[in-house]
Amino acid sequence: MARATAGYEEHGEEDSPGALPQPPRDEIDLGRVLAALADPMRRTVVATLATAPEGFEQHCSAFGLPVSKQTRTHHFRVLRESGLVSMTDRGNRVLTSLRRRDMEARFPGLLALVVADAAQDRQQDRSED
Amino acid sequence: MARATAGYEEHGEEDSPGALPQPPRDEIDLGRVLAALADPMRRTVVATLATAPEGFEQHCSAFGLPVSKQTRTHHFRVLRESGLVSMTDRGNRVLTSLRRRDMEARFPGLLALVVADAAQDRQQDRSED
DNA sequence: AGCGAGGTACGACTGCGCTCGTACCTTATG
DNA sequence: CATAAGGTACGAGCGCAGTCGTACCTCGCT
């Protein structure tokens, strides 16, 4: 079970069954979001989700992060508690989706910056071959 | 003297005398910038500079940060090494200015987000009186 | 020259973030 | 039912970031 270690209150209201706790739109804190995006690994995850079509969901393990699964869990928790992503517990697998509308409403253009930067990084890697 | 503790190389080319080392525009790293902006105190500084008119410069001590001057020095160093601000050593005082054009060129809209968030915070504080 | 204010350098402490090992749970598959 | 895979909880190590104390420098003012 995910306990309320975050700063926001535990809301009994959970839209869908298995939805893991996350801050409501108005309580999303810029500091938390920026801290979450400061990590390259988490930025990769966000860029991947943001590049994918609307409503895209993916397993946490499908991002190919070069860390152990415990560390992966940690990163996804940070992303969720910051408000960047929404996660659904399906028992043995967890689906992650970008909170695109919430982020666009609170910090318009921020996701685009992350996407653009990730794209530029990929281009640099290609030219270094 | 400020030594090159940053990741970027020490460029002999310094535009104006007393200009403290800072990364050139193309080497400004998003992770560093986001990490710098993740701190509320540094975000306040950036928001203040971004709200002020173009080319505005201010002493580090004039921001009213509730910390010691050593800590203040630390925060401004982080801001400078991230590429957010430009600093000029005038002997006994240091002038800080926002690298507005560079930031707008690399991460368009980011400063606006910081400004908007700071404005919203101020409004909340006012309604809490 | 002396003093105070602004700033930095260096060192130290403290807390937090990233990492993983171990243990355990849940589900799908054989 | 046994096993493997995805995930989490808990704890530990480690490094870095934020904070300050002490010391020192530079300039403006008296």
What does this structure look like?
The structure is a homodimer of 129-residue chains. Chain A is mainly alpha-helical and 129 residues long. Chain A has a single domain, classed as Winged helix-like DNA-binding domain superfamily/Winged helix DNA-binding domain (Arc Repressor Mutant, subunit A, Orthogonal Bundle), CATH 1.10.10. Helices cover 47% and strands 10% of the residues of chain A. The first copy, chain A, contains 5 helices and 3 strands. Chain A has a 3-stranded antiparallel β-sheet. In chain A, α1 (30-38) runs antiparallel to α3 and α2 (40-51) packs across α5. The longest helix of chain A has 18 residues, at 110-127. The structure holds a DNA duplex (30 and 30 nucleotides).
What's the quick description here?
With 129 residues, chain A is mostly helical.
Topology at a glance:
The structure is a homodimer of 129-residue chains.
Chain A: H1 30-38, H2 40-51, E1 57-59, H3 69-82, E2 85-89, E3 94-98, H4 100-106, H5 110-127
Antiparallel strand pairs in A: 1-3, 2-3
Helix pairs in contact in A: 1-3, 2-5
Chain A binds a DNA duplex (30 and 30 nucleotides) through helix 3.
Q: Averaged pLDDT of chain A, please? A: 88
The SSE string of chain A, one letter per element, is: HHEHEEHH
- Counting structural domains of chain A, the number is 1
What CATH calls the topology of chain A is: Arc Repressor Mutant, subunit A
Summarize the biggest pleated sheet of chain A: 3 strands, antiparallel
Give the low-confidence spans of chain A: 1-13
Q: What is the CATH architecture annotation of chain A?
A: Orthogonal Bundle
> What is the percentage of strand-forming residues of chain A?
5-15%
Global structural class of chain A: mainly alpha
Specify the overall morphology of chain A.
Answer: globular
Question: What would you give as the CATH superfamily of chain A?
Answer: Winged helix-like DNA-binding domain superfamily/Winged helix DNA-binding domain
Helix content of chain A: 40-55%
Broad CATH class of chain A? Mainly Alpha
- Give me the number of helical elements of chain A: 5
